[in-house]
Task: inverse folding
């Protein structure tokens, strides 16, 4: 267990874990000052590429964005989403996970659970590849965005799934859109930390898509708190720039490269 992962693991039942997503160096550099974990999420499919779901994002896309994010991350644990179909079996999962880690220098990968791929997680961990799990609403495997674990029976099934992921060797697990009762049940019965998204304050930590909480993505389910509306701020700046260009008020002498000469 590397030092960053050990630090996350030791926060269990002691202090809340702060996580956000990043797809570029500029955002990652800001997050690194405040977050315990920075995730290069396959949510970039929706946020950056405008796809209806996360299925179309490629391993190459993930790697390229992680290379950028890595330049801004010094302290945080850097976790990378394995995209859909990149871990359909152990051989494929090992090949792709090793490629991601080798090319990007990230600390760990995240795999969504389909309630069947526990052995893939186990074998990756045996190969010294740190894995974060993910249960509840798993966009790569489920079409309907809904609350999970809203009955005792469903909550117990999620607990069993989480325990199998823990047994496989995952160092933490994301709980997405899981009821408060189920989140509390799972968190209190696991030794590894739980990271919630739309899954109540009972989790050991929280994660949001950064573009959602900054008001950039246009996707705001009930569990997302919009801390600022950057869309409005950016539009105001662009509008001002447009007006100044049309009125020939920009650039002024202040922005001229006065006295500069070409070396050629």
Result:
């Amino acid at each position: 267990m590397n030092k960053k992962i050990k630090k996350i693991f030791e926060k269990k039942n002691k202090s809340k874990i702060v996580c956000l997503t990043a797809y570029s160096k500029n955002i990652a550099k800001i997050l690194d000052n405040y977050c315990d974990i920075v995730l290069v999420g396959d949510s970039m499919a929706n946020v950056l590429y405008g796809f209806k779901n996360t299925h179309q994002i490629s391993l190459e896309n993930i790697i390229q964005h992680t290379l950028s994010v890595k330049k801004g991350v010094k302290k945080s644990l850097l976790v990378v989403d394995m995209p859909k179909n990149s871990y359909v079996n152990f051989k494929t999962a090992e090949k792709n996970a090793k490629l991601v880690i080798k090319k990007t220098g990230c600390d760990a990968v995240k795999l969504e659970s389909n309630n069947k791929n526990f052995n893939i997680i186990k074998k990756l961990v045996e190969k010294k590849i740190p894995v974060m799990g993910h249960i509840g609403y798993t966009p790569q495997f489920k079409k309907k965005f809904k609350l999970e674990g809203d009955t005792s029976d469903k909550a117990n099934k999620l607990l069993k799934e989480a325990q199998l992921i823990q047994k496989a060797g995952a160092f933490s697990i994301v709980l997405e859109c899981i009821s408060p009762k189920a989140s509390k049940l799972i968190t209190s019965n696991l030794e590894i930390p739980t990271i919630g998204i739309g899954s109540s304050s009972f989790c050991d930590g929280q994660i949001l898509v950064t573009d959602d909480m900054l008001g950039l993505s246009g996707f705001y389910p009930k569990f997302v708190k919009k801390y600022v509306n950057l869309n409005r701020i950016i539009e105001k700046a662009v509008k001002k720039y447009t007006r100044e260009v049309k009125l020939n008020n920009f650039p002024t002498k202040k922005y001229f490269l006065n006295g500069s000469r070409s070396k050629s």
About this structure: Residues 71 and 252 are 34 Å apart (CA to CA). Strands lie at 17-21, 37-40, 77-81, 108-110, 131-136, 172-176, 194-197, 205-208.
